[in-house]
Amino acid sequence: MPIRYATLLLLTLVAPLAHGQAVPAGSVPGDIQVGVGYANANPDYSPHRFNGFGVFADADLWQHFGVEAELHRVSGPAFDRIAETSYLVGGRYRYPIRNLSPYLKILAGGSNFSSKSSGQNGGYGIYAGGGGVDYGLTQHLVVRADYEYQRWGSFPPHGLQPNVFLAGVAYRFR
After folding, report:
1. Which terminal CB of the chain, N or C, has fewer other CB atoms within 10 Å?
2. What is the DSSP string of 52-87?
């Protein structure tokens, strides 16, 4: 008799963990993608646009929510000798629609500013917001268009507000 009660209790406790329905077709929690792209920025320090590259990695942990880590490195013309590098990590919300995945993101991290003629060289804390769209060309190949507004609050004298555009390609691990 006690074994029947123990079995009934065990089944009652485990039943909520069992899934009777399939995962919806539009959601694939656990996707990871890693990519690289061309970056173009309005550095908010020089009248010239800066060019460079970006590297990013995304992990979609739930149906719509995930995390993103990225690095941007942009520099100005040779005569400027100015470069801005940002290292950011944060959350993102995506809304997949067939092959398109528009997303919004909020990130925070650090940055590095280097200039041959400025006394403002060094690292600064930053935060950023932005968004973009991923387009799945194949099951594993993704094309990305991304915009990001950064705020370097501790940059003297009144902060720095670069805008970064990125066009890239990623490999999605499924």
Report:
1. N
2. EEEEEEEEE-SSSEEEEEEEEEEE--TTT-EEEEEE
Q: Where are the domains of the chain?
A: 26-173
Query: How crowded is residue 169: how many other Cβ atoms within 10 Å of its Cβ?
Result: 14
pLDDT greater than 90 at residue 10: no
pTM to 2 decimal places:
0.79
Place of tokens 């539009």: 26
Mean pLDDT of 47-55: 94
Q: Sign of torsion, CA 154 157 159 164?
A: negative
Those residues with Cβ within 8 angstroms of residue 28's Cβ, 6 or more apart along the chain or in another chain: 60, 174
